[in-house]
Amino acid sequence: RLRTLRDDADMSDTLHTVEVGGATPYRIHIGPGLLDDGALLARTLRGRHALIVSDGNVAPLYADRVEAALRAAKPELRIARHVVAAGEAEKTLANFGGVIDALAALGATRDACVFALGGGVTGDMAGFAAACWMRSIDCVQLPTTLLAMVDSSVGGKTAVDIPQGKNLVGAFHPPRAVIADTAALRTLPPRELRAGLAEVIKYGAIVDADFLHWLDAHCDALLAGDDAALAEAIARSCAHKAAITERDPFEHGERALLNLGHTFGHAIEAEQGYADGLNHGEAVAVGMLLAARLSATLGLASWGDAEALRALLLRFGLPVDIPDGLAPEALLARMRLDKKAQASGLRFILWNGPGAAKVVADVDEAAVLAVLRGG
Ligand code: NAD
Ligand code: MG
């Protein structure tokens, strides 16, 4: 069962725990300062080996603190650190191999634990290494981007990229625990924070109309990095992702709703080349609005709801327009290649207004093209 509860011991409004049920239950701890909470970090450990995996931006900021907290709580622990260069381009099989080598060098046993300290790139790659080492060891996710806190650290998908495409090699491997220190978001570039907020808005759009109102009311606090507002937004997002992935862990149905805006978004990302232009969250923001307009075109949502979504995205400083220079026909061609596209034709997550979405197969290409053309 899933529930969100306040931490009674603290009574503060910045600490949250989300319990994820299903075949492999785990807890998501959310709040400021948790990376220094040695007792909490150590409670997740079964054995005597810990490997901290991080990237070149995050390790200098936080790895010493995590290591010190772990050492203080469990002096007999054997801890190693493995740092990979930052960026999506580093989410490779070669760097996955580097994490495996680090586990081997540590002499990690079956009860060892990988701590994935960083954004989704680190979490996906370190999680995949944990899934593979000795056919799977524990991975504790220590997400440091908002996107990783609300999305990639929860739900158990792990992967690396290959030249043929993103996330093509991976495994389902739920974390042992997720520990999200909201204070770590203070060093996150504002643009990365907004990208995470796009995914937060997505949860409101697909399953929680009240959450959309709450987000509208707390926009300034969230953009200013207010701990209580961020913790609440993260907890609600995680509760939604956890509930959905608990009911549909392997994406046979409902889990696909988490991809609202992603068919359009992925096409934009692919067409502009991943290096510059919109980042993932920004592309999803544009994609959600396009999905809303497509839904309105098909009579599934109202134009007023689509317009309200646009206004909310703009308030959060997110883009709502397809970047200049991307041809509608080229974007449509990308969507035909999307791995979510099925033999039956174009498949979209469409919107029925705030808090309601559904998967629709065989969407009319002419309608999609019209929306891409801004018609
Ligand atoms: P990222 O890991 O590249 O982090 C973004 C940037 O922020 C990096 O440069 C990183 O070094 C830096 N950074 C991270 N934390 C920081 C901090 N606290 N202070 C300063 N800088 C910091 O990217 P991301 O947006 O976190 O994650 C994107 C990845 O997540 C993609 O590879 C995507 O495929 C994956 N993803 C996976 C899932 C899943 O279910 N597994 C879901 C969504 C996304
Ligand atoms: Mg996404």
From TrEMBL:
Pathway: Metabolic intermediate biosynthesis; chorismate biosynthesis; chorismate from D-erythrose 4-phosphate and phosphoenolpyruvate: step 2/7; Metabolic intermediate biosynthesis; chorismate biosynthesis; chorismate from D-erythrose 4-phosphate and phosphoenolpyruvate: step 5/7. Its main location: cytoplasm. It is found in: Cytoplasm. The keyword Cytoplasm applies. GO terms for biological process: amino acid biosynthetic process; aromatic amino acid family biosynthetic process; chorismate biosynthetic process. Binds 1 Mg(2+) ion per subunit. Binds 1 divalent metal cation per subunit. Can use either Co(2+) or Zn(2+). Zn(2+) binds at residues 199, 262, 280. GO terms for molecular function: 3-dehydroquinate synthase activity; ATP binding; magnesium ion binding; shikimate kinase activity. It catalyses: 7-phospho-2-dehydro-3-deoxy-D-arabino-heptonate = 3-dehydroquinate + phosphate; shikimate + ATP = 3-phosphoshikimate + ADP + H(+). Keywords: Amino-acid biosynthesis, Aromatic amino acid biosynthesis, ATP-binding, Cobalt, Cytoplasm, Kinase, Lyase, Magnesium, Metal-binding, Multifunctional enzyme, NAD, Nucleotide-binding, Transferase, Zinc. Its cofactor is Mg(2+); NAD(+); Co(2+); Zn(2+). Signal peptide: none annotated. One of its GO terms (cellular component) is cytoplasm. NAD(+) binds at residues 120-124, 144-145, 157, 166. Its EC number is 2.7.1.71, 4.2.3.4. Catalyzes the specific phosphorylation of the 3-hydroxyl group of shikimic acid using ATP as a cosubstrate. Catalyzes the conversion of 3-deoxy-D-arabino-heptulosonate 7-phosphate (DAHP) to dehydroquinate (DHQ). Belongs to the shikimate kinase family. Belongs to the sugar phosphate cyclases superfamily. Dehydroquinate synthase family. Monomer. This is Multifunctional fusion protein. It comes from Thermomonas brevis. The lineage of its organism: Bacteria, Pseudomonadati, Pseudomonadota, Gammaproteobacteria, Lysobacterales. The gene is aroB. The chain holds residues 168 to 542 of 542 of the full protein.
